[in-house]
Amino acid sequence: MSHIIWSQLAQDIANWHSIPNVPSDKIQPLIVGILGGQGTGKSTLVSLLTQILKDKFGLNAVCLSLDDLYLPYADRLQLQAQDPRIVWRGPPGTHEIDLGLELLQQIRAQRFPAFIPQFDKSLQNGAGDRTTPLEIQVADIVLIEGWFVGCRPVSPVQIDQAPPSVVAEADRDFAKDMNCALHQYQGLWQEIDRLIVLNPIDYRLSIQWRQEAEAKLRSPQNPGMSDAEIVEFVEYFWKSLHPELYILPLLNEPQWVDRVIDIAADHSPTQIYTPK
Fold it and tell me: What are the chain's domains?
């Protein structure tokens, strides 16, 4: 089933890229957004799509992760000093949006070489920092993936009226500030031609998936995060942009989303469809 769904998605992307009666070298690069929470398999999907698009359709796909647009370490320290609520990298405001926007516009105009920023999460004792960018000479398709790629701000009233299970009273001001910061990303999202959403059967599976991934990485030299720390970490992301406010509504928005892929508890895709 997984192979069938991923092959179908690659076919859809190839179809989106092609324009009848226009030579392939005259077609602008296609920019595809991939939205999915932690553990939904964004990185794995991008790797698979890149390979299928190359082998089956002869298309060169490159990846830009939202993570690669994180502010440099020194800038994030300054940001945290200004707002101690920014405990970890990840929420709106911790990225260099103009860097991503300029890159997408450069690739769209086919001005090469282009340099895709890279972020190494192991640097600065795990806080992460920029590293050597990746030079590319060609791109037919850009796959930009991230946990809130394509998300749109909501009304502050929706945050006020959200139940405590979605936005706790103590977190409402933080949620409103993150919602406000999300406005700054809309110019970047406007560069996206198509949006794909990875939809787990229950968004709360992100905690279990993150714990399972962390357990595989633990060693005497690298104890990693405890299960309790992982819960706190994942819920921190939900406090900033809760899935029930920002992701689930997109599943019924065909004007914003082109494909939805449902993800089972074992990470496997179960179906692919267009929102209705």
Answer: 2-273 (3.40.50.300)
